[in-house]
Protein 1
Amino acid sequence: MFLPGEVFFSAALQEDPSLIEFGVNEKVIVATPTTLIALLRAVAYGWRQEALAQNAKDIALLGKDLYDRVAKLGEHWTKLGQRLGRTVDAYNAATATLESRVLVSARGFDQLQVSGQPKPIVEQKQIEKVPRLLQAEEFVGMVEDEA
C-alpha cells in the first residue's frame, strides 16, 4: 500500500503502533516515497543477482562443454601425430627397400644399356622430421599406439 507522504504513516502509527505488524500479518507492506525507493532498489538488486546466477550457470555449462571438446580434440591430435609418425616410418622403410633392392637391379639395366636413352634415377631420401608430440600434461600418454 502506497502512502504519498511520510507524515501520513507517522500519524497513523501514533494512533495505532501495531499497524506495521498487522500489515505484515495481512501481507500488506506500507510504502512511503522513501521506503518505496528502497524497496524498488532491493527488487532490482535481486533481479540482477538472479541474472548473474543464471549467467554463471550458463558459463559453467559452456565451460564444461568446451573442456570436453578440447579433450576430444586432444585425443584426435594425439592419434594424428602417432599416425603421421607411422606414415613417416612406412615411407622410410619403402625408401630403404627402393634404394637397397629395386634401384640396384634397375641400375643393372642402365649398365647394360638396355634402356636406350638413359634417364637418371632420382635418389630418394628418408624423411628425418618427426611430428611434434603434444606436451600438455592433459594429453601426455592419453592415446596408446593403435594397430
Note: The chain has a mean pLDDT of 85.
Protein 2
Amino acid sequence: MHAQPYTCSITVPVPITEAFAAIGHVADWWAKVFEGRAEALDDVFTVRFGETFVTFRITEIIPDQKAVWHVTDCFLPWLKDKTEWTGTEAIWKLAASPGGTRIDFTHAGLVPQVECYGVCVKGWDQHIKDSLYKLLTTGKGSPT
C-alpha cells in the first residue's frame, strides 16, 4: 500500500479563470520573495524564506483546469535531507462548483514517512487554506 500524499481543498466564490490566475501569482499568497514566472508551461520560479528556497518548473498546464509544479531544486535547512522536496510535485486541479471554484491541491511526494511532513502540512494549510483563500475572497493574501 502506498502512502497518501498531502492534499487539501478549498472552494472559493470566484470564477475558475480568476482562481487559476491567482495560483500563478505566488507572491500574492505564498512567498514575498519570488523570482521568475509561474504562469505558463516550462516557466521556472523560486520561492525564498531566508536561507530556505524551492525552485519549480511548470511541467504541465491545462488553463483553468490543472497545473503541475515540479521541484527541481531546494534547500530546507532544518531537515537532515535538505533537498527532501527535490523531485516532488505540487499539483493543482480546479473545477467549477456551485457558487464558484473548487481547488484541489496535492503535494505528490510529501507523505507521512518523510521528515518534513508535519511542518510542511502546517505550512501548506496556512498558505492555501488561509492565504490563498483570503486572496480569492478578500483580494489580499498573507504571503510570508
Note: DSSP finds two helices and seven strands in the chain.
Protein 3
Amino acid sequence: MPIELKNVNYYYNRGTSMEVHVLKDVNLKLDRGEFIGVIGHTGSGKSTLIQHFNGLLRPTDGQVLYDGEDIFGEGYDRRALRGHVGLVFQYPEHQLFETDVFTDVCFGPRNQGLGEEQIKERAEASLRLVGLGEEFYKRSPFELSGGQKRRAAIAGVLAMEPDYLVLDEPTAGLDPGGRDEIFHVLQTLREERGIAVILVSHSMEDVASYVHRIIVVNEGKIAFDDVPREVFRHYRELEKMGLSAPQVTYIAQALRERGLDVDPLVTTVPEARDSILKALEERKHGC
C-alpha cells in the first residue's frame, strides 16, 4: 500500500500577486514499514508536502496515489484514506478536545462507524501502546504533561489503525525525557505493527539516531532522498540550505584534520565512539 507523489506541484494563491510556488515537480514513493525523516529549513515546503500524503491539500498539478489509486479521482473516499494515513500536527495537544483522555481516543474509530466494543478495544490497545494506563483514562487531556499530551494525541490516531503515521515536529518543546518517550513509542509502533513512521524534524541528531531514510526538502524540491549516512555526506551542501549534519559528524571531521583516522561519516554517538576507539587502538599499535 505505497503512497506515491507523481510530478506534484502546489501553489498558494495561484494567479494572484501573492502567488507562491511551494512544491515543485515532486516525485516520491513511500512504503509501509519505513521510518523516514523529512528535513528542510523553515519555509522549504516540508509541512506542505506531508499534508498531501492523506489529501489534506490537493496538488495544483500532478497526482497523489494510495495503493495505486488517485486519491483525488472521482468517487475516492478520502475520509477513509485518513484512517490509513494518520497525521499528527506540530502541537498535537491542539488535537485534544474531549472531556477525558479515553473519550478523545475513541473519537476516530467512532467516526469510522465501528461498534462500541470494537471502539473500546482499539482505544485501550492504543493507549497501552503509547504507555498511558487506566489511571489516565478519565483525566482531562489538558491536565497531562507535554509528553503525555503528545502520546494521547498519537493514541487517538493509532486507534484508527493507520498504515502510515505522519508526525510534524512531535517532540517540539519537550524535555529530553519526554522526547525519548515519544521516540520509544514510535519505534515500538513500527516494530510491533509495521506502521510506517514519517517524521518531520529540525533535530539532525534525532533524525540520524532513529530514521532509516531521509528526504531533504529545499525550496520546494527534493534535494536528497537516501539513507542518513549518504545524506549527511553532503553536509556542506546541507549548510547552504540552512541545515547541518549531526554534531558528531563535525567532531569526526575535526579529529581527522588532527590526524586521527576516524570514519568521517559517522552520524550517531555510538558510531563516533566505536570509530574513535578503533582509530586510537590502531594508532597505539602503529597500524
Note: The radius of gyration is 21 Å.
